[in-house]
Amino acid sequence: MNEGMLYKMNSLNILIGRKMLVDKFGASQMIIMSYLLHHRDGVYQKDLEDILNLRRATVSGVLKTMEKHDLIERVICEEDVRCKKIVLKSDAINMFEEKKKEFLKLEEVVKKGLSKEEIDEFNHIIDSMRNNLIAYLGKDSYDKIN
Question: What are the extents of the domains in the chain?
């Protein structure tokens, strides 16, 4: 069977996702934790939706999971009691650093056996594909973190 590029990329994404699920710590949580780490004063859920270009339900689900695992807390905003800022808990920072090391190790596993030139070419190709999709779908579809 001649598998197309999208099939192969999706297959790779699934395999990476399975490793993350085993660790019970997904990419979305890592991205949100990284953002919160750089914005220690807290952010609103709407900000995360806009910055990550994710639907409200998706962000809400990830935040509920993170809250359940005691990674974040919602703090009532002084200016408006209806608003709650999302703040990373101090214990979560250590967990984030540990998981970041695991993600970097997984990246090394993925790159194993590839030369620097192959990795550079891969990155160039992926960037070109992403730019093609952004042009096709519109700039609003682009994940603003990247």
Answer: 5-112, 113-146
pLDDT digits (tens, 9 = 90+) for 15-38: 887 776 656 667 788 888 889 999
Reading the block at residue 27, the tokens are 């990419």
**Residues 52-74: what's their mean pLDDT?**
89
CATH topology for 5-112 is: Arc Repressor Mutant, subunit A (1.10.10)
**Whether pLDDT at 144 is above 60:** no
Q: What pLDDT does 51 receive?
A: 85
CB 88 within 8 A of CB 36: yes
Contacts of 30 (CB under 8 A, 6+ apart): 96, 99, 100, 103
- At 140 the three-state DSSP class reads helix
Is 107 within 8 Å of 14 (Cβ atoms)?
Answer: no
Q: 141: which DSSP letter? A: G
Scan for tokens 């540990």, then name that residue. Answer: 98
| Length reported for the chain | 146
| Helices (H), ranges, 5-138 | 5-22, 27-38, 45-52, 56-68, 90-111, 116-137
